[in-house]
UniProtKB/TrEMBL annotation:
InterPro entries: Ribosomal_uL29, Ribosomal_uL29_CS, Ribosomal_uL29_sf. GO terms for cellular component: ribonucleoprotein complex; ribosome. This is Large ribosomal subunit protein uL29. Keywords: Coiled coil, Ribonucleoprotein, Ribosomal protein. It comes from Ereboglobus luteus.
Amino acid sequence: MTSKEINELSLKELDVKLREAREQLLQLRLRKQTGQVEKTHTIRGIRKDIARMETTKTAKLAAAAK
């Protein structure tokens, strides 16, 4: 996901997307341990997406608090 797409999501949608991304990351990590992942760079991409979503979520919560 791009930063622009993430910024357009509501807080509830962000929570859902974060949960899905974390589940996907967990599955990829487990599959990596068993040697089933061919494209290990996807793990890094998902981690970056999670960081982008967390940053956007924090910014939106701070803006809502003001």
